[in-house]
Amino acid sequence: MTSLGSANWRVHPMQEMEPSGASAAISTSSYGGIHMPGIMNRASKSKTETSSSMETAYWSGRRKQLGLSRLDVEKESETTENEKYDQFLKDMSVYVERNFHQKECIKFIPKPNQKVRSNQQLKCHCGEVLSLHVWARSMKEPGGLEKHVPEEFLELARNPTAPPPQVIPQVEWKAECDISPKSSWTYGKVNFNVETSGGKKPAKYLRLSNEDSVDSCLEFMETFWHIMDPYPPNLVISVVGGAKNFKLDGEMRDTFSNGLIKAAKTTNAWLITSGFNMGVMKSVGQAVHEGQAFLWDNDRMRHVLRCIAIAPWGYVYNRRFLEARNRRGRMTNFAYYRTSNRILHGQPVALNPDHTHFLFIDDGMRNRYGGVADFRARFERKLCTPKQENGYGIPVVMMVVEGGPDAIQDACQSLKEGIPVVVCTGTGRAADLLTYAHKFTFKDRNGEHTMNERQRKTLEDRVATAYSKNWGDKAEAELKKVMIKIFECMKRDNLMVFFDLRREEDLDVAILSVLTKAETSSGAKNRLSQLELALTWNRADIAQSEIFREDVNWEEGELNGIMTKALLEDKMSFVRLLLNQGVSMKDYLTVPRLEHLYNVLPQHGFLPMIFKRHIKKTEFTVQDISKFLTNLLDRYEDNMLNAPRGRDGGKNRSLTTRRHKFMETTDTEAEEEPQQFQTPYKQLMIWAVLLDRKELAKFFWEMGEEPITSALSASMLCLRMHRMTPKYLHTIRQDFLNMKKMFEELATKVLDECHARDPEKAIMLVERKSPMWSRMSCLQIAAAANDQLFVASVACQNSVNNVWKSGILSDWRQVFLCALMPFLILPVINVVDMGSKYFGKREKILTFVTAPITKFIYHMLSYILFLCGYTYMLLVDFMQYPSPLEIVLMLWILSFFIGEIHTFIAFPSPTIRGKIRDWFTFLNRLELANLLVAFIGFAMRTNSDYYTTAKTVYCINAVIFFIRIIKVYIANSHLGPKLYMIIRMVEELMMFMVVLVVFLLAYGVCSQGLMYKRREPSFEIVKDIIQFPYWQLYGEIFLEEIQTDTDCIARLANGTTLLPYENTCRESYWLVYIMLGLYLLVGNVLLLNLLIAIFSHVFNQVEENSVEIWKYQMYFLVMEFQCKSKIPPPVSIVQHLYELIRFFAKRYCCGKKKHTQSFSTHHLNYLALFEKEMMANYLRRLKFKSMDSMDRRFTKLQKRIDMLNKIIEDRHVEDELAMQASLRLGDGLKVLSATVNRPSSLPESASTPVLAASKPPRPAAPPMGLKESAPPMGLRDTITSQLKEDSTYGPEQRVDEGATKQEKVERETKVAFNLFTLHEEEEGEMKKKRHKKKKKKEKHSKTEERDSSPEKKVLNINLPEIHTKPTLDKQISDENNEESTRAMHRPRSQSPADSTVFFKRPTQLGMAVTALTKPSPESLHGDEPDLESEVEETTEAHRSPRVPRRQSRGKLNMLSHSENRMLEDVEQSDSSSADSYTLHASRPPHNRGRKNHKRKSPARRRSDSD
Questions:
Q1: Which of 26, 1050, 1240, 1355 has its CA 20 to 30 A from that of 361?
Q2: What angle do CA 892, 909, 638 make, to 5 degrees?
Q3: What pLDDT is recorded for position 1438?
Q4: How far is CA 1157 from CA 86, 402, 767, 833, 1166, in A?
Q5: 1066 by DSSP, 3-state: which?
Q6: Residue 1358 in contact with residue 1422, Cβ under 8 Å?
Q7: Which string of b and e fits 69-79 if b means at least 16 CB within 10 Å?
Q8: For residues 1308 and 172, what is the distance between their CA atoms, to the nearest angstrom?
Q9: Cα distance from N-terminal residue to C-terminal residue, the chain
């Protein structure tokens, strides 16, 4: 039984085995697996019983700590748990034995021709030695050998240490007969000897036959390994490639690892490899190790990355440690495997420890890699088969990293089955071969893939170089097979993507691209799955280009699921893309979908926690969300969901009426009409704001209607959510504040845009009652959301000013003067006509009287008069009983109270809660309380016994009445912010006092305790503790109060000795002085300066935003006085009584009040369009600024620099490849120049790119046995005669006729080699004698000629009879023209192969010159034309017109330089072995490209060399 310690990561082993209900349903129904009722029911039951065991244990412990009883849960004994787990293991064992097999060799027959030292080292045809056969290991008696070993080998088996016989008998061994399958018992879990820094979990493994069913294997993985939990994969990545000799290092390894892990984590992908600790499998394992993580579900632990190894059992190193002795698997007693980096040729390889699951495929063969390919292909085919065809419908991608012929074969097979392939270019061998073939393969006129003969030859050479070492005698046949497979891959290149690990970085994007290409080729049935993958990668650009093409039509509603997923995963780019593709949000967003969006949120998130606290439900309906939003927004009128009462006297409206008002009426059936919202973007914006998804909320704001009002509502939502979110979620609270600022700024900027275009319409937008947001105006929402920036905008202040003055154009001084002298109203006051042609005196006077500014003046004057009378009454006229003045003042106070109640009711906030929040500020609350206290004091005046108490109350009232004058200061732009500053400082002062009281009480209690030994209980103790320390902070030290009270002691002692516990008098104590000094130091220095710093901080904050604060306060002042009575107190009480009577009369007698709208529907639509257009203008200008910003420019510059770096790297790689080709060409030219006299033309296959500026190595001596001599006759005649004698030529055929140039060159070269071989022995001795005589003479002549002609090179060569100048000129001209034209029309490539165009001339010219052979003795002193001048003239004549002349001239100079170096090398090589020719060459220091050249400037030379 596995304990907690052995498992090392779980509470009980059973909790790892059983699937959850959801995963079980997926495993059996969604993926077409075979249902197993017995096993699944038992596993599900066990999961139900033990799923909450960890939570139960935790809460039981907490309850025990609190003294409560433990949770009353069903407790199962240890025996019951063990029985369930044993039953589970038994079910697994039965399933494995019934469905899986392992193969073993049952007859030992050694292979012939083995070179070993002893019989025990002889290997059977199966690849295993005798002692490691299963029957040999289990054999206890020697007599059992006869059953498994033929008679011919019994002696060998019985004498294992003896040397083997020289000739091993040949006995027939057949795999079909001698390999026997048996039920598999090798399965379980394995721990590796690798220490990791993170969590560790054993890997699971299973051994099965290569002929076993893939369906059974996948069913076993689902049922017992839970490979599909917690959710199935969206992708399978199969990696093939290099094994023993491959290794990724440096940046390529980082690119491969990061891209692979990003793709796997993003899509929950499976990675499939061979699982060994070598090559690409090890690289995949390292990537998995770096990116591995775990999913925690209650008390279970699962790998995030699933890396599955499908490995051949016979090739596993130390595989015997994985076998189970009891044939019940290694589920309880985990296998322990020691991995190793040991890699030997032809020997098994250790497993990689970073794979999570192992499938060991057993074909009966040992110590060789094989038997896996077919099973792996069937495994991957089953995964990618659609669900309709009993498959899993999971996309599969193959990745080729380096690799041998098997990798090409696997890629070809995958492409045939429609599996896309990603080729990692730059890793070598198979990957680079496929890349080269793809680059140079093209379609002919018939649509067939073909390749140029020259490039085909190069490809064949590369294949032979990569693989010919292991082919041996079968090289030609194997080469043909590989070439066929490569061209078969090229036929399906539309399913291939080539990713260069050296230059590119996003491997995951390459995988997504190849998936979309596979979708394009496979048809439209899997488009949604590919779109889901693109969504998972969040690559809307690839989806736009590859999936949403013009030739693809989507059915209506087909993309709704993708839209839901994009919303839930916060993929704004995909939401925008889907909307551009024709998805209608009105058709998409229905009530069930909106409820789904709210209910699928993570249960551990902050929003479900807030919902549960306020809604107190686990499943939320739209009605519940509507109630919640009403609490946040004060009013959220969605009549379909949240209007229990209509406007018709309180009765409920019919559901149909309510739905039709806020739903879009469509042509569908009646029951489907209410499912569509009229304003879907409003609902989605609210959903995104509540989830703290800033970008998505902004996008829905852009797409919705009424952007100003919507932004303000979103700002209000953010403020409310900030307050509702718990304080420990500081990051989320701060995010809501940032989002609030964003929406406030957006609303302000759009309103400013409207004001800049049309100020009058901007004011209309501010004052409009939004039909979309419950008939609330922008100012109402902004005031509730504390959007000071918006209220301070120009348009809002114009609206507030219009309300404040009500159309009065005169200055406030004139208004104040006319308020004091009303007869000046008509001549002094100027009023706007307010759209009316006739504006008479009555309208003018009425406008002046009802204006809030006039009300403010009259109320202010009335209040000042009240304060004067109240002060006189309090100081002079306060009699025993209330005087007439006091009664008048009480009526005045009553009118104040009624006026406050009236203002509260009439304040424009939509709800009672909003009125309390917006109007009922600190000063208003203080004033209301003061009025109530005044009434209490007046009631005391009826009894003369409370005379003093009543006056005390009146005096307190006077303080508050005077403080109320501060409210008048709000109208002043300088004093208004100071009032807000004082309120803020008072709040900070309260917090400071909480800190101060701690030190005050500490010192007070300590000092009083030291000075008084004992005191009688009284209130004086509390007073002394607080009073003296408090006043000492202000400098009143009270030193006499800390000295000894001698009078009290003398009086108490009365001549006797006082004991300490009897002394109640004050005595001085030395520690009190020290405590006083420390207290004053902390209080006066530390705390007081802290308070000053706090006040300074508050002052700076308010001063920065003083204008906005004043304008924001001014709005509330204007709204308050707009609601106040036109007549100031105390006469206003008459108006209040009149309005009360009028209200009841209208409500009960004169009919119901009808709602009126100042704007018609047409006007509202016009304003909405204007507002929307101004928002678009602002966003366009903002986008233009961002594109023109410094950061954007820097980003563009960085991209260009990166692109330039890649181009430079490509050129560097091209130069390196060209250098290598040049070095190889130099070695070939040594042999060719030493053996061939002078061929008429060069073989086309020899035209390998050469780096002209590089100097090839010095040629070595000619090969041994190859002698050089001058033929007795001209080379032309000799070759022609030989060709005539060849049977392949008819009597009428000539060398110059009938055959192609390539055939001529090959035949002439062949004949030349034959001739030199015949003359080798005869000319050997003559060559040695002539060499000694001519050596000094040649060196002396070359030195003299070089010194005598520094500006001109003279080439004295007596050419043989055959002249190659026309042929050379024609070849150079044709190829230059062809390559120049091809370079102009070919797209720019980053491959080194394209550099052939730039190095074509040095190749042809160098080979032509170095191929010049030795002249005949008769022509040693003949004069020949200067070869360089001829080459220059020929190349100038045939230069392509598309190549710039300066560039061609510079290249030709480089060619000439390279040519001279090659000539020197050939000359030095031949001078030691040939006396038949003399080469006179002088090399000028610069520019040998032309015969008569002018000296160039350094800048010109640099440009030419470049």
A1: 26
A2: 150
A3: 40
A4: 78, 76, 12, 22, 15
A5: strand
A6: yes
A7: eeeeeeeeeee
A8: 53
A9: 77
- pLDDT tens per residue across span 666-676: 333 334 444 77
3-state secondary structure of 834: coil
Integer-rounded Cα Rg, in Å, for the chain is: 49
Burial class (CB in 10 A: 0-12, 13-18, 19+), 672: exposed
Q: Single out the residue of 586, 547, 800 nearest to residue 678, CA to CA.
A: 586
- Tally Cβ neighbours within 10 Å of residue 1282: 17
pLDDT in tens, 266-300: 888 999 999 998 888 988 988 888 888 777 665 56
The pLDDT of residue 670 is: 38
- Asked if 360 contacts 100 with a C-beta cutoff of 8 angstroms, the reply is no
| Dihedral sign of CA atoms 405, 512, 357, 362 in order | negative
Burial class (CB in 10 A: 0-12, 13-18, 19+), 753: buried
Find all residues with CB under 8 Å of 1006, minimum gap 6, and list them: 1075
Indicate the Cα dihedral angle 546, 547, 553, 557, nearest 10°: -160
DSSP letters along 357-397, please? Answer: EEEEEE-S--SS--S-HHHHHHHHHHHHS-GGGTS----EE
Are 292 and 304 in contact by the 8 Å Cβ rule? The answer is yes
Residue 806 DSSP symbol:
T
**How would DSSP label each residue in 1395-1450?**
GGGGGHHHHHHHHHHHT--PPPGGGTT-----HHHHHHHHHHHT--TTS-HHHHHH
The conformation of residue 1360, written as its DSSP 8-state character, comes to -
93 with 328: CB under 8 angstroms?
yes
Q: Which of 421, 394, 426, 424 is nearest to 410 (CA)?
A: 421
Note the Cα 1260 to chain centre separation in Å: 58
Burial of 195 (0-12, 13-18, 19+ CB in 10 A): exposed
DSSP 3-state of 203 = strand
Q: From 337, 343, 382, select the one nearest 360 (Cα to Cα).
A: 337
778-812 per-position pLDDT tens digit: 999 999 999 999 999 999 999 999 999 888 888 88
HEC profile of 208-254: EECCCCHHHHHHHHHHCCCCCCCCCCCCEEEEEECCCCCCCCHHHHH
Per-residue pLDDT, 1375? 43
> To which H or E segment does residue 206 belong?
strand 203-209
Q: What is the pTM of this model?
A: 0.69
Structure tokens at 1054: 């009365």
Q: What is the pLDDT of residues 530-579, one digit of tens each?
A: 788 888 888 888 888 878 877 777 888 888 889 999 999 899 999 999 99
- 559-563: long-range contacts (C-beta < 8 A, 24 or more apart)? 559/531, 559/583, 560/588, 560/593, 561/528, 562/528, 562/531, 562/532, 562/535, 563/588
Please name the amino acid found at residue 116: V
**Whole-angstrom Cα distance, residue 270 to residue 1203?**
34
How far apart CA 391 and CA 690 sit, in angstroms, is 41
* pLDDT tens string 813-859: 899 999 899 888 888 888 887 766 667 788 888 889 899 999 999 99
pLDDT at 196: 60
The two tokens of residue 1175 are: 């928002």
CA-CA distance, 1205 to 1203, in Å (whole number)? 5
Residues, the chain, total? 1506
Report helix angle 841-850 to 852-875, nearest 10. Answer: 50
Q: Rounded distance, CA 224 to CA 40, Å?
A: 10
**Residues 620, 592: Cα–Cα separation, whole Å:** 11
738-761 average pLDDT score: 94
Report the alpha-carbon distance of residue 1266 to residue 1317 in Å, rounded.
Answer: 7
> Are 296 and 164 a contacting pair, CB within 8 Å?
no
* Strands 187-192 and 203-209, bridge-based pairing: antiparallel
Give SS3 for 1471.
helix
